[in-house]
Amino acid sequence: MERAVIDTNVLVSALISHNGNPAHILDMISDGSLTPVYCLRIIGEYTQVLSRPHFRFSRSLIIKTLDLFNLYGIAVNPQKSDFFMIDESDRIFYDTAIEGAAILITGNLRHYPVEPFIVNPAEFLRGVI
């Protein structure tokens, strides 16, 4: 079974549009064909971002979404890398993918180093389906 770290922008996109590639990735977690890898800092970021008023996500939807990670995911405690990052807030996703031997799925490829394990949602789905 494939392991993946889901960047926050992919999670937000999945909840905004139920028909796109990010939503399909979230469905893969629900059906057990994708194992999310996360750490407590990532869950904290998910909670903070999904709770922003302008998204208007219901509390029950946020809880249901985060429960997917708790129920089907693997929690890791990543070591901080010293690799140069364009956006330091993205480091936790990179480090978690390294620690969890997982693919990193992001909508912001330009924020990360060019690595074969870092892909956007469409690239991920082309490799899986």
Tell me briefly what this model is.
With 129 residues, the protein is α/β, with parallel strands linked by helices.
Please, could you describe this protein's structure?
With 129 residues, this protein is of the alpha/beta class. It has a single domain, classed as 3-Layer(aba) Sandwich (Rossmann fold), CATH 3.40.50.1010. 47% of the residues lie in helices and 13% in strands. It contains six helices and five strands; from the N terminus they run βααβααβαββα. The chain has a five-stranded parallel β-sheet with strand order 3-2-1-4-5, with helices on both faces. Helix 1 (8-16) packs across helix 2 (21-30). The longest helix has 14 residues, at 59-72. The protein is globular. The relative contact order is 0.21. The mean pLDDT is 95.
Which blocks of ≥5 consecutive residues have pLDDT under 50?
none
- How many domain regions? 1
Give the distance, in angstroms, between the N- and C-terminal Cα atoms: 13 Å
Give the total of beta strands: 5
Percent of residues in helices = 40-55%
Average pLDDT level: 95
Full CATH superfamily name: 5'-nuclease
Kindly name the structural category: alpha/beta
Order of helices and strands: EHHEHHEHEEH
Rounded Rg: 14 Å
Features of this protein?
alpha/beta, 6 helices, single chain, 129 residues, Rossmann fold, globular, five-stranded parallel beta sheet, 5 strands
